[in-house]
Design a protein that fits this description.
The chain is an alpha+beta fold. 39% of the residues lie in helices and 23% in strands. The protein contains 27 helices and 33 strands. Strands 1, 2, 3, 4, 5, 6, 7, 8 and 9 form a nine-stranded mixed beta sheet that branches. Strands 11-14-18-17-16-20 form a six-stranded antiparallel β-barrel. It binds one RNA strand of 72 nucleotides through residues 94, 356-358, 361-362, 364-365, 419, 423, 426, 451-452, 454-459, 484, 486-496, 662-663, 746-747, 843-844, 847-848, 850-851, 871-875, 890, 893, 897, 900-907, 910-916.
Length: 939
RNA sequence: GGGGGAUUAGCUCAGCGGGAGAGCACCGCGCUGGCAGCGCGGGGGUCAGGGGUUCAAAUCCCCUAUCCUCCA
């Protein structure tokens, strides 16, 4: 235990701020007092700890998480709940991979945050270094990032002071063990660490690329990393070992990014008018230090998972040692399982189901890797689903999504585990078949074959090698890797890279005048034009024919949001008419009207009558309320795993995307449709009110993942049936929707289904159209719609009967005809040859006839030609006995077909051909004996 | 987002340009003391759907749907 020995200086507890008391009461009230860890950094506590020889207090992961949030909440930060792992409105990201990722709109100026200071504990997924997981102390695919953020508010000084304060006095890190890096040119940060904090200069290192944070164009800046020295025994022993070294000695616990520049397209850096702070601290790392364990996996955030795995496989977790081989032993499999099940649990909790593309595929792959680790530990049956409740016990308190969906997540994991076991046994059978051929010749398994097994059948390469080795066969691993690389290259080339953020600037960002939305109740308003923008520049007027954007002091126009599309309508005023074509949200939240001036000139400050197209709006509200009813009905019928994955509400129709495995069956679809219509028939009152988020959640309101809500939320409640948070426009009672019809159900990606539906007038038109179709079909069959199914079955029966009658009739006919044809057999040099020209027989019919003839004739050659109005068909048969004499049906037909303008071919015993020159048949048929004679002579 | 594959009888699958097949299951007849009993006969198919190429498509090409699988 090097830590205890090196410990130098006791903490000065007198420095603990006075405000701590109030904060601590909050913190401890949030957690049961029976908790083993004391939050309070009191003197006595510290002393008792120090007597035990630990320099710090030991805190659970949950305690660190909450302590961090509370610390910054006390310093004016808004506590931001962890966003969904699935990025919202950000196609450049596969997963939320950093604490700042969900806040990108605030960083680039698209949106203005409610408060300029934010603190969060953000769940993140990173799979770039997936191969390292389990083999190092700290690589993980799922982790929690603690971060504090400033948007144009505090900057370096506070960020650095608070970071130091939190680490040394709240987490009680020994200051002697901390060192930092700053950017070579960032003297400001250096001074702050050196002078304000008092960090000696030998523990401030200056770096270059590692200390500058940028992604392509956009906001960027220098950063300062804080390292914790775990002691020499964790080090690589190298003389140059210092913060930033790859080994485990100096652990980077916190990165403070000072966003102060904007990288321009030409590569230059210009200072940002609003500077930001973006910090990130890895929760698991900090926990490993505080809990004095050698790697992240032995903290309380993972350990119960590994203990349960150990119980299941009956293998003890190899207790850690400083021996580097620890990471390559069985311990790695325990760690892989613990890591991957956390990722999978949280991802499924956020609506990502295992599948074959995108995020879904990553989840599938992680799950399979975990299954294989389990196999290496001797677990042969599905077990991962049993770890889900443990993930919930560890983190469900702070991440309610996984607690609520626990049963569902277990079900999904279990199904996927079972499916993989199936894949494995199928692949094994396939591999054995391939190997059979190889063991005899002593060849090795080609890389192509190994890759095919891997790529097409999902059979892991290491298992292929293992089984092949058992059969004494080696695998061409090099060729396999080449194939894999080629595949990677293909995928990479297909990917269009669009990363980074773009700092949005211009007139829109400076539009701060308020605008009131009155459209929930009014379709019209007397308004004043408060701002005009053309081509991103504020202007005083817009003339006829021009397009631009404008703000109104109050507006009845709804801006596109929450799936509901924007209103359209007009503005009219003194000599001016304006078309409102679209409405969006400006950075400061006002409704921004995209307009075209129809006639006249629109001036800033002008009074206008703003008028929404009422008919379109009313159709839209019907579809919107119906969308809520549909959401609820889907959850009732299919299960609560159904989560909205997208929504479009237009006047004409609605579209609703949601997570669900597999197609929705017809009967389920009918049930969903019926339940929505029942809600319409009940004519429930739709209540809309504002309340605070907690109250709304207590009422059971559905909120969307990744959606940001302020403290005041708007609740839309349709009777006792549906209750959702929503800012959209709705009918006042469900009866107004009139009718609800589902028009389509399709899949739009793995685990995501789409339902399209119509209501009101749209539903009426839809039903009428269907009705007309039915009437048309009925009239064609000379019946009425009610009798249609019976009529169709009768027709089918009749057809079946006629078909078999026809068959037996033609069979009789063939028999007769065969009897007649037999008489035409000629003897060609001792070979019986029958060649005949027929009429209106199809190829299958002629084959049938040939079969009849073969029964009646001795081994012979049969050549039949048939003429239809414009085509010729040939069938040639050669008895097996005659094939030995060099006669070949395929060759024969190749000679004959050209004489009727066609071609053909086939096997030695049976061949077919076609043609289009009906006139040539008789001559060709007459040629048969000569051709046979020739062929027989050649042989 | 980009690849590789699958879809054929109730089930498991073969066939991969030229007569739609096997095993199991099912029905009938006969044999048979047990193990998945045996033999003979039979019914059952829009070869996923749609378009194309070809004299000819289950088979080759394109599109759609569903599923499996790999890569980012």
């Amino acid at each position: 235990m090097g830590l205890a020995v090196i410990r130098v200086v006791p903490r000065d507890n007198a420095l603990v701020p006075v405000g701590m008391g109030a904060f601590l009461r909050v913190a401890s009230a949030a957690r049961p007092p029976s908790n083993a860890f004391a939050l309070k950094p009191s003197l006595s506590d510290a002393d008792s700890k120090s007597l035990e020889g630990s320099p710090m207090k030991s805190l659970s992961g949950a305690q660190i998480r909450n302590l961090y949030k509370q610390f910054f909440a006390e310093r004016g930060h808004l506590v931001f709940p962890s966003a969904s792992l699935v990025p919202r409105d950000d196609p450049t990201l596969l997963w939320i991979n950093a604490g700042m990722a969900p806040l990108k709109p605030y960083f680039d100026g698209r949106e203005i945050p409610e408060k300029p200071r934010i603190v969060s504990s953000q769940k993140c997924i990173r799979t770039n270094d997936i191969e390292n997981v389990g083999h190092t102390a700290r690589h993980q695919t799922f982790f929690e990032m603690l971060g504090n953020f400033s948007f144009g508010d505090y900057f370096k000084q506070d960020a650095i002071a608070w970071a130091w304060d939190f680490l040394t006095r709240y987490l009680e890190f020994s200051p002697e063990r901390l060192s930092v890096t700053v950017h070579v040119e960032d003297d400001e940060a250096y001074e702050l660490w050196n002078k304000n904090v008092g960090l000696p200069s030998e523990r401030i290192f200056r770096g270059t690329e590692d200390n500058f944070w940028e992604i392509g164009e956009g906001p960027c800046g220098p950063c300062s990393e804080i390292f914790y020295d775990r002691g020499e025994e964790y080090g690589c022993g190298s003389e140059t070992c210092q913060p930033g070294c790859d080994c485990d000695r100096f652990l980077e616990v916190w990165n403070l990014v000072f966003t102060q520049y904007n990288k321009e397209p030409d590569g230059s850096y210009t200072p940002l008018p609003k500077r930001n702070i973006d910090t990130g601290m890895g929760l698991e790392r900090v926990a490993s230090i505080l809990q004095d364990v050698p790697n992240n996996f032995e903290t309380d955030l993972f350990r119960p998972l590994m203990d349960e795995t150990s119980r299941l496989c009956g293998v003890p977790y190899p207790e850690s040692s400083s021996d580097a081989s620890h990471h390559t032993s069985k311990a790695a499999d325990f760690k892989i399982i613990a890591d991957h099940i956390r990722t999978v649990t949280f991802a499924i909790g956020d609506g990502v189901l295992p599948g074959n593309e995108g995020r879904s595929y990553i989840i599938r792959r992680l799950l399979r890797r975990a299954v294989r680790s389990g196999k290496r530990l001797g677990i042969e049956k599905p077990f991962l689903h049993g770890l889900v409740p443990i993930v919930d016990e560890i983190m469900g308190e702070d991440y309610p999504d996984i607690r609520e969906k626990r049963e569902f997540i277990m079900r999904v994991v279990r199904l996927e585990e079972e499916r993989f076991h199936e894949t494995l046994s199928e692949g094994e059978a396939l591999l054995m078949r391939v190997l059979e051929g190889l063991t005899e010749t002593g060849q090795s398994l080609s890389g192509e074959d190994a890759f095919r097994l891997y790529d097409t059948y999902g059979f892991p390469i290491d298992i292929t090698e293992e089984i092949a080795a058992e059969q004494g066969v080696t695998v061409d691993r090099e060729a396999f890797e080449r194939e894999l690389d080629a595949q990677r290259e293909r995928a990479r080339n297909a990917r269009q890279t669009a990363e980074g953020m773009n700092a949005l600037r211009g007139a829109l960002e400076n539009l701060t005048t308020k605008s009131q939305f009155v459209g929930y109740h009014d379709f019209e308003a007397q308004s004043v034009v408060t701002a005009l923008v053309r081509d991103g520049v504020e202007v005083q007027e817009l003339k006829a024919g021009e397009e631009g954007e404008l703000l109104l002091d109050k507006t009845p126009f709804y801006a596109q949001s929450g799936g509901q599309i924007a209103d359209r309508g007009t503005l009219s005023g003194d000599g001016v008419t304006v078309l409102v074509e679209d409405v969006s949200k400006a950075p400061h939240g006002q409704n921004l009207h995209h307009v075209r001036i129809e006639s006249g000139v629109l001036l800033r400050g002008q009074h206008v009558l703003a008028k929404v197209d009422k008919s379109l709006r009313q159709d839209t509200t019907k579809n919107h309320t119906a969308t809520h009813l549909l959401h609820k009905a889907l959850r009732e019928v299919l299960g609560t795993h159904v989560a909205q994955a997208g929504s479009l509400v237009e006047p004409e129709r609605l579209r609703f995307d949601f997570s669900h495995f597999g197609p929705v069956h017809d009967d389920e679809l009918r049930e969903v449709e019926r339940r929505v219509n029942e809600a319409i028939w009940r004519d429930d009152v739709v209540e809309i009110f504002e309340t605070d988020l907690d109250k709304a959640k207590a009422l059971g309101a559905m909120a969307l993942f990744g959606e940001k809500y302020g403290n005041r939320v708007r609740v839309v409640k349709a009777g006792d049936y549906s209750i959702e948070l929503c800012g959209g426009c709705h009918v006042t009672s469900t009866g107004q929707i009139g009718m609800f019809c589902i028009t389509a159900e399709t899949g739009i990606g793995s685990g995501v289904r789409r339902i399209e539906a119509v209501t009101g007038k749209g539903a009426y038109l839809y039903v009428k159209e269907r009705e007309a179709l039915l009437a048309e079909a009925a009239s064609q069959l000379k019946t009425n719609p009610a009798e249609l199914p019976a009529r169709i079955s009768r027709l089918q029966e009749e057809m079946q009967k006629q078909r078999s009658e026809l068959e037996s009739a033609t069979a009789r006919l063939h028999k007769n005809r065969a009897g007649e044809l037999v008489r035409d057999v000629q003897d060609v040099g001792g070979i019986p040859v029958l060649s005949a020209s027929l009429k209106d027989l199809s190829a299958p019919e002629m084959r049938n006839l040939v079969d009849q003839l073969k029964v009646l004739l001795p081994p012979s050659i049969i050549v039949l030609a048939s003429a239809t109005s414009d085509k010729v068909a040939w069938v040639v048969s050669v008895a097996p006995e005659l094939q030995k004499r060099g006669l070949h049906a395929g060759e024969l037909v190749k000679r004959l077909a050209p004489m009727t303008g066609g071609k053909g071919g086939g096997r030695a015993d049976m061949a077919q051909a076609g043609g289009n020159d009906v006139g040539g048949i008789s001559k060709a048929v007459a040629e048969v004996p000569r051709l046979v004679k020739e062929a027989a002579a050649d042989a």
